[in-house]
Design a protein that fits this description.
heterodimer; A: alpha+beta; seven-stranded mixed β-sheet; B: alpha+beta; BirA Bifunctional Protein, domain 2; 2 domains; two-stranded antiparallel sheet; 12 helices; 42% helix; rod-shaped; binds zinc ion
Chain lengths: 856, 341
C-alpha cells in the first residue's frame, strides 16, 4: 500500500519527523518497507532515544532543494529561432526573469501567441539543481549545468514529472494550479513522500489512506480528522426510487449491496491534484469517473464499481434494471474487463442483471457494462463480499485486482454505503451532474461487531506488565473502539465495542486476545519488560532417538566422514540410476507432488543411497578422496490418501584414495570394500552393538561378489558393498571402486543398548602368539575367527586377522589365514604349558569344523 | 721400572690424542689396556720384583691404569657427544613444510547451528521434540487457526501431494499440536527442529527446503515479557552478549499478540551495512503468544494456560554468521563448501 504523506495529512496531523513516523508504524505492525521522497527532505542524523530509529526504513527518491526548485510563472511562449520542436519561455521565478528552453509538447500550442492572458505556473529548476535525467530510463540523477542548445544559452529547466520523481511521465511539463505562489520552494507546495506499507492479513483495514491515518493518530496521540459530513453528499436530482432494485440470493457471500445514481456526469480528465495522488499511490489516471472510483478505494478502502446506467436499462428492455447477486452456474462464462473469457466456478459470486452476468463480484467487472467516454448516467455499486469466497475465486481464476486485494482481506459492510456516498459526491464535484436522492441499500446480513469484556488483569496475565485501566481505554478509544468501564468487586471491567470498519476482532476469548494485541502494539512492545519464566520447569525428558542419531553423526565424523544434506525431493528416474539397468523398479509407489516446482523433483525420495551417489557425482572430479554420509528420512507411501511412512536412514559413500596425498609419498591405494566395512565396524562398536552378522548377498545396486547384508540379532539393517560397475556407469563415475551403504537407522538406534559395561583392564601380561591355518577358499574368515574364540574361551582375549595369503604351494582353492592371538588370565601370568593346552584345543576345533591345517 | 711406567703413560696419552673414531679408540684400548699391552706386562712382572720395590711399582702401575681408563672414558664420552651433535645437525627439518593431511570429517553447517540452538535452549529447560515432514492439511493449517481459503494461507506457498489433504509441512508448527496433545496436561517447554518445504522459485535467498526450529512454552503464567526475555537471552548467547533485540508487531494466525524479533546487526554493530540492508537490524525470528484457538486445539484451556511460540531458520542464522551469500550452497553438497565448516 503506497501512502502519500500529503494525502495522509487530510486525515491526521503529522507531528513526527517522517523517518521516526516510519519507525513507529513499523514497530506497530505497519511495516514501512520503503519511503520514497518526492520533494520532501528528512532531517539527517540520529533519531529517537536509541539513535537508531532513522535506519529502519529504506529511503529512496529525491528531495527538491528549496533554493533551486521553485514555483515559477511563464508569461510568454516564443518560438526557437533554430528548432521547430523547441520553444523559449519567458519565465519569472520570483527573483528575476529568465528565458528557458523546453521541448514540452504541452506548450507547443502557445508558441508565438504573444503574452499569455493568464501566466502558467510551472515547477522551475535553477542552475545547479539536482533532478532526474528525463532522457534516461529509470531514475538517474543529474545536475543542471549551462549548455548551448541549437545556439541558445540554457542553464535551467521547466520540469516534467519524471524529472522530479513524481512518475515516469516525460511527455510534457507539469502545469501547476493557477494559485501556486511564484517563488515558493516547490517542496513546500507539492513536496511529498510516499510510504510503502506492507499489509498483513490482520491489518487489511489499513489498506487505505484513512486506515493508515487511524493508526498514525493512535500512535502519535493525534485526533483523527474525519470531518463531520465527510460521507455526506448533496443530492439535487430526482429520487432513485423505482430506478433500480437489488436481489441478493446468498447473504453469507454478499451481506450488503448499495447502489447510488448520478445523472448527466461529464467525463473528462480529473484535476491535477487527484491525478498526482493516484500516481503517487501507484495508479494510472484514466478519466474523472474511473479515477474517482479508484480514489475512493485508496482513500477509505471500499472498492466501487461504476455501471453505465443506460446500458443496464437497455439490457432490461427499457425498464428499471434489477441487480441480482448469485453464485455462478457450473460452466457459466463471462468476459472480464481484461478481455479474457472465463469459465466460472460454482462457488464464485456474480453480479448480474436480468439479462445475465455483469461482473465477478468483488474481483473484476465484465467487458459489456463497462463505462465509456459516452457514459452520462452512472449507477454506482458499493458492496460487501465474503473475503474467503473472494479469495477462493481469485485463486481459481488466477485473477488479481486492487478491488479483489481488499475484498479478499475483508472490507466491513458499513464501508459499502460510505464508499457510494463519497464516490457520488466526488463525481458531482469533479464531473458535474446531479445525484439522485436516496440510495438503494440491501443489507440482509448486518455485521455483528463484537462486544468484548476485558479486564486489566487479563491484559496483565498475557503481557506480564500492568497497564492501568485508563490507559487501556485511551489506547482502545484511539483506535475507535467504544469503551464502557464498570467497577466490580474484583476490579475494573471494560465493555469494548468494536468499531464498524474492521473485521479482524473475534468474539469472547479470541476477541480478548485480539484486543490485547491492539493494546500491546500501541502501548509499545518495547515497553514490556523482559522477564525470565517464573513457571516451574516442566517434566524434563530425554530424546533418545535424536541423541543416538547425533552420536552416529559424531562417530562418523570422528572416522573422517563429512556430513551432507540432500533434497528430499527427487524424480523416479534420478533414483532409478542407483540400480543396474534392467532391474525391476521399486515395488512401493512414490508420493507425487501435485505442484512440483521443477519437473526433475516431483516425488519424495525413496533412497538415501541415491542422494549420496548424486553427491559423489557432483564432487568426484574435485577431490581424490570422498567419504560422505547423510542421515535423513525416506518416504514410502502407505495407503492412498494417508500420510507416508517416514523412515530414518543412514547412507555412507566412500571412494578414491585411502589417504590424502601430501607432499610426501602417501598411501594412494584406492579404498575398497574393507575400508567401508571398517567404518561400519567402527560405527557399530561405537554404538556398543554386538551380535552382528555379515552375510554375503546380491543386490541390484552392488557388485555381486562385493556386497553384504548387515544383521544384528534377527534384524536386517541394510546392505553395503562396492557399487555395481553398471551403476557406476549410470552416474558417469570414473574408473575405481565406489563403496556405499544404506542402513535402516531407526532399527539400528533402537537396537543400541542404553547401557554397557566395561571389562577390567588385565593386571597380568598376555602371551602373544601368531597362528596361521590353511583352509579351503570357501571358508569365511569370520567363521575361523569365531571358532578360535569359541575354542579359546575366556583365555583368548584377542583374535586379529593380520594376513590372508594364497599361493600355488598351498594349492588352488586354498588360503592361509594368519591370526594374532592374545592369551590371558585375569589372575596370573600364563605359562607355556597353559598356552599350549588352549592352542591344541583351537587347532583341533579348526580341523574338525573346517578341515584346517596348521601352517608351519 | 718407574721410568718405564712414565713412558708407557705418556705414549698412551699421546696416542689417544689422535684417536677420532670408535674403531681407533678400540684399537687404542687393545694396544694400551689390552692383555698384551706394555702396562699389563708391568703387572705381570710385579711378582718378580723385590719386596721393597713391589708396593712402590704396584701402586704406580695402578695409578697409570686408572689414569688411562679415565682418559679412555673421557675420550669415548667426548666422541659420543660430538657424534650426537653431528646427527642432530644433520637431521634438521624444514619446519615450514606442510603437515601430512588428515582426512578430517565435518558436520554439515546446518547441523552445527542446530546443535548450538539445542544447547542454548536446553540450558533454559527446553527439550527437543521432532515430528513428521509430510503432514496433513489439518495439522499444518487448520489446527493452527488457518482455515481453508483464509488470506493468511498466502503466507505459505505449499507443496501439495497428489494424495488429498497430504502436503509437505511448510513450517514445524504442526509439531505444536502434536506435542500439546501428547503432553497435556503438563506444562511444556520444547523446541521442534526439522526440515520444512515451500513452493518457491529457488534463488540465492529462497530455497524449497530449509530447516526450522520452532519453540513452544505452555504454562500457567507465561507472559509476553517471558517471551521477550527468553528470546533475548537466546539472541545474546547466539550472537553476542552485547547484542540488542527489538520486537516488532507482526502477524501469524497461530499467535496473538504476534511479533518479529530483530537482532542488532552484529556485522556492523547497528550502523547499517549491506547485510542488514542499511537498517542496522536483522530479522531473526517470528514469535508470539499462542493463540487461544491453537491452545484449545492442543487440549489446553486458554483460560488456565498461556504460552508463547517462536520459529527461526538455522540456515538464515548460518548465512549471517558465516557470511554465506547464497542459500543454495546448503543442499548442493559441494565439498568445497562443506569443508569450510
Ligand atoms: Zn549491518
Amino acid at each position: 500500500m503506497k501512502v502519500p504523506i500529503s494525502w495522509l495529512r487530510d486525515f491526521v496531523d503529522i507531528t513526527l519527523p517522517l523517518d521516526e513516523l516510519a519507525h513507529r508504524l513499523t514497530m506497530a505492525g505497519l511495516e514501512v518497507e520503503e519511503m520514497t521522497l518526492v520533494g520532501l527532505s528528512i532531517p539527517s542524523g540520529p533519531l529517537g532515544a536509541d539513535g537508531r530509529g532513522s535506519l529502519d526504513t529504506k529511503i529512496s527518491g529525491l528531495s527538491w532543494e528549496a533554493d533551486k526548485i521553485v514555483v515559477a510563472a511563464v508569461s510568454e511562449v516564443m518560438p526557437h529561432p533554430n528548432a521547430d520542436r523547441l520553444v523559449l519561455c519567458k519565465l519569472y521565478d520570483g527573483e528575476r526573469e529568465h528565458i528557458v528552453l523546453t521541448g514540452a509538447p504541452n506548450l507547443q500550442h502557445l508558441k508565438g501567441t504573444g503574452p499569455l492572458p493568464q501566466p502558467l505556473k510551472v515547477p522551475y529548476a535553477r542552475l545547479g539543481a539536482r533532478i532526474y535525467d528525463g532522457h534516461q530510463p529509470g531514475q538517474v540523477l543529474t545536475t543542471l549545468k549551462p549548455a548551448k542548445i541549437r545556439g541558445i544559452e540554457s542553464y535551467s529547466m521547466i520540469c516534467s514529472e519524471k524529472e522530479l520523481g513524481i512518475s515516469e511521465e516525460h511527455d510534457g511539463i507539469i502545469i501547476l494550479d493557477d494559485e501556486a505562489p511564484v517563488g515558493l520552494p516547490l517542496a513546500d507546495y507539492i513536496g511529498d513522500a510516499v510510504f510503502d506499507i506492507a499489509i498483513l492479513p490482520s491489518t487489511a483495514r489499513t489498506a487505505s489512506i484513512l486506515g493508515v491515518a487511524r493508526e498514525v493518530a493512535a500512535i502519535t496521540g493525534q485526533p483523527l480528522r474525519l470531518m463531520p459530513g465527510f460521507f455526506s453528499y448533496s443530492a439535487e436530482g430526482p429520487s432513485i426510487e423505482g430506478k433500480a432494485s437489488i436481489q441478493i440470493t446468498t447473504p453469507e457471500l454478499n451481506p450488503r449491496f448499495v447502489l447510488g445514481l448520478i445523472q448527466d456526469l461529464k467525463i473528462g480528465p480529473s484535476p491535477y491534484w487527484m491525478q498526482r495522488r493516484l500516481k503517487l499511490a501507484g495508479m494510472r489516471p484514466i478519466n474523472n469517473l474511473v479515477d474517482i472510483t479508484n480514489y475512493v478505494m485508496l482513500e477509505i478502502g471500499q472498492p466501487l464499481h461504476a455501471f453505465d446506467y443506460d446500458v443496464l436499462v437497455q439490457r432490461a428492455g427499457g425498464k428499471a434494471p434489477t441487480i441480482i447477486t448469485r453464485t455462478a452456474e457450473a460452466g457459466e462464462r463471462l468476459t472480464t474487463l481484461d478481455g479474457v473469457e472465463r469459465t466460472l466456478n460454482d462457488f464464485s459470486v456474480l453480479v448480474c442483471d436480468t439479462a445475465g452476468a455483469l461482473s465477478i463480484a468483488g474481483v473484476m467487472g465484465g467487458a459489456e457494462s463497462e463505462v465509456s467516454d459516452q457514459t452520462r448516467n452512472i449507477l454506482l455499486e458499493g458492496a460487501a463480499w465474503n473475503y474467503i469466497n473472494t479469495r477462493r475465486t481469485m485463486g481459481a481464476q488466477k485473477l488479481q485486482s486492487e478491488a479483489a486485494y481488499r475484498f479478499s482481506r475483508g472490507v466491513h459492510p458499513a464501508m459499502a454505503e460510505r464508499g457510494v456516498r463519497r464516490g457520488l459526491e466526488l463525481m458531482r464535484l469533479l464531473g458535474g451532474g446531479a445525484i439522485c436522492q436516496g440510495l438503494v441499500d440491501h443489507y440482509p446480513l448486518p455485521a455483528s461487531d463484537p462486544k468484548i469484556t476485558l479486564t486489566p488483569a487479563e491484559v496483565e496475565r498475557l503481557l506480564g506488565v500492568p497497564v492501568p485501566v485508563e490507559q487501556i481505554v485511551k489506547i482502545l478509544e484511539s483506535l475507535e473502539f467504544a469503551c464502557q468501564v464498570t467497577q466490580t468487586p474484583e476490579g475494573a471491567s471494560i465493555l469494548v465495542q468494536t468499531p464498524d470498519h474492521r473485521l479482524d476482532i473475534g468474539n469472547d476469548l479470541i476477541g480478548k486476545a485480539d484486543l490485547i494485541e491492539e493494546i500491546a502494539r500501541i502501548y509499545g512492545y518495547d515497553r514490556i519488560p523482559e522477564t525470565r519464566m517464573a513457571d516451574a520447569l516442566p517434566p524434563q525428558r530425554n530424546n533418545p532417538s535424536l541423541e543416538r542419531e547425533e552420536r552416529v553423526r559424531d562417530l562418523l565424523v570422528e572416522m573422517g566422514l563429512t556430513e551432507i544434506v540432500s533434497y528430499r525431493l527427487t524424480h523416479p528416474d534420478r533414483e532409478a540410476r542407483r540400480v543396474a539397468p534392467g532391474t525391476p523398479p521399486e515395488d512401493k509407489p512414490y508420493l507425487y507432488l501435485a505442484n512440483p516446482m521443477a519437473s526433475d523433483r516431483n516425488v519424495l525420495r525413496h533412497s538415501l543411497l541415491s542422494s549420496v551417489l548424486e553427491a559423489v557425482e557432483r564432487n568426484i572430479r574435485l577431490r581424490p578422496r570422498l567419504a560422505l554420509f547423510e542421515i535423513g528420512p525416506v518416504f514410502m507411501s502407505s495407503e492412498e490418501g494417508t500420510l507416508p511412512d517416514e523412515m530414518q536412514r543412514l547412507a555412507i559413500v566412500m571412494t578414491g584414495e585411502r589417504d590424502l596425498a601430501g607432499w610426501q609419498k602417501a598411501d594412494t591405494e584406492p579404498m575398497d570394500f574393507y575400508d567401508l566395512k571398517g567404518v561400519l565396524e567402527g560405527l557399530l562398536s561405537g554404538m556398543h552393538l554386538s551380535a552382528l552378522r555379515i552375510e554375503a548377498v546380491e543386490h541390484p545396486s552392488f557388485h555381486p561378489g562385493k556386497c553384504a547384508r548387515l544383521w544384528i540379532g534377527g534384524q536386517p539393517l541394510g546392505v553395503f558393498g562396492e557399487l555395481h560397475p553398471l551403476v557406476s556407469e549410470r552416474y558417469d563415475f570414473p574408473a575405481g571402486a565406489v563403496l556405499a551403504a544404506e542402513l535402516d537407522l531407526t532399527s539400528l538406534l533402537a537396537l543400541a543398548p542404553e547401557r554397557y559395561e566395561m571389562s577390567s583392564v588385565p593386571a597380568f601380561p598376555p602371551v602373544l602368539e601368531d597362528l596361521a591355518v590353511v583352509v579351503d577358499e570357501i571358508v569365511p574368515a569370520d567363521r575361523v575367527a569365531e571358532l578360535i574364540r569359541q575354542a579359546g574361551g575366556r583365555t583368548v582375549t584377542e583374535v586379529r586377522l593380520f594376513d590372508v595369503y594364497r599361493s600355488e604351494q598351498l594349492g588352488t582353492e586354498k588360503k592361509s589365514l594368519a591370526y594374532s592371538l592374545a592369551y590371558q588370565a585375569p589372575d596370573r601370568t600364563l605359562t607355556d604349558k597353559d598356552v599350549a593346552q588352549v592352542r591344541q584345543k583351537i587347532i583341533r576345533r579348526l580341523e574338525q569344523e573346517t578341515g584346517a591345517k596348521l601352517r608351519s | 721400572m718407574l721410568t718405564q711406567l712414565e713412558q708407557i703413560e705418556k705414549a698412551a696419552l699421546d696416542a689417544l690424542k689422535n684417536v677420532q673414531d670408535e674403531a681407533s679408540l678400540e684399537q687404542w684400548r687393545i694396544a694400551h689396556l689390552g692383555r698384551s699391552a706394555p702396562l699389563m706386562q708391568v703387572f705381570d712382572q710385579l711378582g718378580k720384583l723385590s719386596k721393597e720395590e713391589r708396593p712402590l711399582i704396584g701402586r704406580r702401575a695402578n695409578e697409570v691404569k686408572r689414569g688411562l681408563d679415565n682418559a679412555l672414558a673421557e675420550q669415548s664420552e667426548a666422541m659420543r657427544q660430538a657424534a650426537l651433535a653431528r646427527t642432530l645437525t644433520a637431521e634438521r627439518l624444514d619446519v615450514t613444510l606442510p603437515g601430512r593431511p588428515i582426512g578430517r570429517g565435518r558436520l554439515h553447517p546446518s547441523t552445527q547451528i542446530l546443535r548450538q540452538i539445542y544447547r542454548i535452549f536446553a540450558d533454559m529447560g527446553f527439550q527437543i521434540y521432532r515430528s513428521r515432514e509430510v503432514e496433513s492439511d489439518e495439522y499444518n493449517f487448520e489446527m493452527l487457526n488457518i482455515p481453508a481459503h483464509h488470506p493468511a494461507r498466502d503466507m505459505w506457498d505449499t507443496f501439495h501431494t497428489t494424495a488429498p489433504g497430504v502436503l509437505l509441512r511448510t513450517h514445524t508448527s504442526p509439531g505444536q499440536i502434536h506435542v500439546m496433545r501428547e503432553y497435556y496436561p503438563q506444562p511444556i517447554r520444547v523446541i521442534l527442529p526439522g526440515m520444512c518445504f515451500r513452493y518457491e522459485q529457488i534463488s540465492a535467498r529462497k530455497e524449497t527446503q530449509f530447516n526450522q526450529v520452532e519453540g513452544l512454552a505452555v504454562g500457567h503464567h507465561i507472559t509476553f515479557g517471558d517471551l521477550k526475555g527468553t528470546l533475548s537471552d537466546f539472541a545474546r548467547r547466539m550472537f553476542g552478549e552485547q547484542v540488542r533485540t527489538r520486537f516488532r508487531t507482526s502477524y501469524f494466525p497461530f499467535t496473538e499478540p504476534s511479533a518479529e524479533m530483530d537482532v542488532e546487526c552484529f556485522l556492523c554493530g547497528g550502523k547499517g551495512c549491506g547485510v542488514c540492508s542499511g537498517t542496522g537490524w536483522l530479522e531473526i525470528l517470528g514469535c508470539g503468544m499462542v493463540h487461544p484457538t491453537v491452545l484449545r486445539n492442543g487440549g489446553y484451556d486458554p483460560l488456565k494456560f498461556s504460552g508463547f511460540a517462536f520459529g527461526m531458520g538455522p540456515e538464515r542464522i548460518a548465512m549471517l554468521r558465516y557470511k554465506i551469500e547464497d542459500i543454495r550452497y546448503f543442499w548442493a553438497n559441494d565439498v568445497r563448501f562443506l569443508e569450510q565448516f
